[in-house]
């Protein structure tokens, strides 16, 4: 069954300088129990895509899509009240910067317990007065939600969870804070976890631990994961399938194995060439010249064309539709690649 | 925490001493002494000298300074040069008046500032935000005494619903009369204060609403109102407390002129008269009092911080 089905999703921001199209007609799907990677440089629209799925995009952001189905239900048709019952419960999110993603004035335990209380029927009031009382005089250590919070801290390997639950975020290290974020995200056993660069702000040894954590979660809770990263090593290690995004558009998608062994889109190739690899350490790294264009009225058809070593005149004029370029649903959006089955997949 | 407070109190005493010293010498550097002011320009040299000797002003400056310091340590504020009245008695009558005005000013100020700041921040760019912003700038750009004159005109002269002159002591005339007398002066000093605090509340809350942990709260499924009051407010109040505490000075300064408008014999009135008369001991005493209030407010702000921000722990507690 499909957990998340996205077709032609656009997220636009009306600004005084023009319409910023952060996500420009993107398709994406995630099956049950899958880990799907979303890679791209900074500014490619990965995070906006993730936030669009949960409808976290703030004004003046505008989300439209032909389809945005979560477990078959159209998310864009939900009311804000319905969304609050989905957020943190059925879909949850881990953010990039664990230093600033936790509230500095609420204990870690309460930040987890709150999520439990919001979404699980454990008979604890979530009215504003009740929540303010917990905030000011502290949450009850005997409550079911607090017990669950400690359980969650334990399951993400926080030592002495009973005492650490009463700590404030500043008393946690960066890695521990990200574990706490994961504990919040998993406290209601979501069906889909969106992890937006969960390891970028952490050092390498902690990164490995967090990734392992994500892996074990999948086994325990049967959660699908959308893993957003610019780190191809993380993708290679973790994901079943990969989507490559550039300047608001999807450019290539394939299984992880296929993508790394047979990258087709020039952007993916350039991305791989600019990533250090142990086996081929002799060669020099090749940076991609130029930067990601600002997504305001990009005048050329293929957004990567100005930086592309293979670009020809028609690349600037003809929209690059997806085509099969390898085995197992390996597709790339580049007119310079001959489709293996001779067919160009129409979008829009 | 105790250690910290002890340290801060010592520090405060030092600041108060410094203010006292600066005021002492600063006052005497102003041309024209109290005797000349009292006796007038026609007084003979002999009369002036006799008066100076009587008041002890003929002694060397350092002797006067040391004597005043000794008096201060024994809580003796001395006597007024002009009336001979005990300054402590003058203060006992003036201080409650000014504090009453300041109290109403702060209550009215915060009562206006916090709700409008919150509305303004949560409806940024909407009509209510613009209205609040324009009102705040109006409040900021009008001095307290001018607001006092307007209020006196509207409520006292046109509508005649409130008295506009004098003060009614709480113990003698009861709370209703007391309140009726200080309401207008209180609002007058409260409006500029409200404007400053409102602007701070707005910008601080806007910053917090934009913080990543607020996005986390939304992603957890926390509703809008709970996000605002449980997740944002405490963080937003930290800088507001600083401004609200320090700007009490604005209320006290405003009170000086507002007391003149409403004919209330508070410390503002006392100070203005004392400076005009070159009445050294009274001027010194009043400025010392105001300085002490400010130092105390600063200390209070720092202590309130520890309740608002769990990251701040002072002194001997583990960090």
TrEMBL record, chain B:
It comes from the Archaea. Coiled coil: none annotated. PROSITE patterns: ABC_TM1. It is found in: Cell membrane. Its main location: membrane. The chain crosses the membrane at residues 12-30, 99-118, 130-158, 178-196, 236-262, 282-305. Pfam families: BPD_transp_1 (PF00528), BPD_transp_1_N (PF19300). It is a multi-pass membrane protein. InterPro entries: BPD_transp_1_N, MetI-like, MetI-like_sf. GO terms for cellular component: plasma membrane. Residues 95-305 form the ABC transmembrane type-1 domain. Keywords: Cell membrane, Membrane, Transmembrane, Transmembrane helix, Transport. Belongs to the binding-protein-dependent transport system permease family. This is ABC transporter permease.
């Amino acid at each position: 069954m499909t957990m998340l089905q996205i077709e032609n999703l656009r997220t636009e921001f009306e600004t005084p300088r023009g319409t910023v199209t952060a996500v420009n007609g993107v398709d994406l799907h995630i099956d049950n129990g899958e880990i799907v990677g979303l890679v791209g440089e900074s500014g490619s629209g990965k995070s906006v895509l993730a936030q669009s799925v949960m409808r976290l995009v703030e004004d003046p952001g505008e989300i439209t899509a032909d389809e945005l189905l979560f477990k078959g239900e159209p998310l864009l048709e939900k009311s804000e009240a319905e969304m609050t019952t989905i957020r943190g419960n059925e879909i949850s999110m881990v953010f990039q910067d664990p230093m600033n993603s936790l509230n500095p004035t609420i204990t870690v335990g309460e930040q987890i317990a709150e999520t439990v209380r919001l979404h699980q029927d454990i008979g604890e009031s979530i009215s504003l007065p009740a929540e303010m009382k917990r905030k000011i005089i502290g949450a009850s250590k005997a409550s079911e939600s607090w017990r669950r919070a400690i359980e969650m801290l334990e399951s993400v390997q926080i030592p002495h969870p009973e005492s650490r639950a009463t700590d404030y975020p500043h008393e946690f290290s960066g890695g521990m804070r990200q574990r706490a974020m994961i504990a919040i995200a998993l406290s209601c056993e979501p069906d889909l976890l969106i992890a937006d660069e969960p390891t970028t702000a952490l050092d390498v040894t902690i990164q490995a631990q967090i990734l392992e954590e994500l892996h074990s979660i999948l086994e325990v809770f049967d959660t699908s994961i959308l893993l957003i990263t610019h780190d191809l090593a993380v993708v290679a290690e973790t994901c079943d399938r990969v989507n490559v995004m550039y300047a608001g558009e999807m450019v290539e998608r394939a299984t992880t194995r296929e993508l790394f062994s047979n990258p087709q889109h020039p952007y993916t190739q350039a991305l791989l060439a600019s990533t250090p690899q142990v086996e081929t350490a002799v060669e020099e790294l090749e940076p991609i010249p130029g930067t990601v264009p600002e997504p305001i009225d990009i005048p050329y058809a293929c957004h990567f064309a100005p930086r592309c070593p293979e670009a020809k005149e028609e690349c600037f004029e003809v929209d690059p539709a997806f085509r099969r370029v390898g085995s197992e649903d390996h597709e790339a959006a580049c007119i310079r690649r001959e489709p293996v089955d001779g067919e160009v997949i129409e979008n829009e | 925490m105790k250690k910290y407070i002890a340290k801060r109190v010592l520090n405060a005493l030092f600041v108060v001493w410094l203010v006292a010293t600066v005021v002492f010498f600063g006052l005497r550097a102003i041309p024209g002494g109290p005797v000349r002011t009292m006796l007038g320009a026609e007084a003979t040299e002999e009369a002036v000298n006799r008066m100076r000797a009587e008041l002890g002003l003929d002694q060397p400056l350092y002797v006067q300074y040391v004597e005043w310091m000794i008096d201060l340590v024994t809580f003796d504020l001395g006597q007024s040069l002009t009336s001979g009245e005990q300054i402590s008695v003058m203060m006992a009558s003036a201080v409650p008046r000014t504090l009453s005005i300041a109290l109403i000013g702060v209550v009215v100020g915060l009562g206006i500032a916090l709700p409008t700041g919150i509305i303004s921040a949560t409806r940024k760019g909407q009509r209510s935000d613009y209205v609040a912003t324009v009102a705040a700038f109006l409040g900021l750009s009008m001095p307290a005494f001018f607001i006092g004159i307007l209020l006196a005109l509207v409520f006292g002269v046109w509508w005649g619903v409130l008295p506009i002159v004098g003060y009614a002591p709480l113990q003698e005339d009861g709370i209703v009369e007391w309140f009726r007398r200080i309401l207008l002066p209180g609002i007058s000093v409260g409006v500029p204060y409200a404007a400053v605090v409102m602007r701070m509340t707005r910008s601080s809350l806007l910053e917090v609403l934009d913080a990543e942990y607020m996005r986390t709260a939304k992603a957890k499924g926390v509703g809008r109102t709970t996000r605002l009051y449980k997740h944002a407010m405490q963080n937003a109040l930290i800088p507001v407390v600083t401004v609200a505490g320090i700007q009490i000075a604005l209320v006290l300064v405003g009170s000086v002129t507002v007391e003149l408008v409403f004919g209330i014999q508070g410390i503002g009135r006392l100070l203005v008269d004392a400076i005009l008369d070159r009445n050294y001991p009274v001027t010194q005493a009043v400025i010392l009092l105001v300085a002490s209030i400010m130092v105390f407010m600063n200390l209070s702000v720092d202590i309130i911080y520890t309740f608002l921000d769990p990251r701040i722990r002072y002194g001997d507690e583990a960090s």
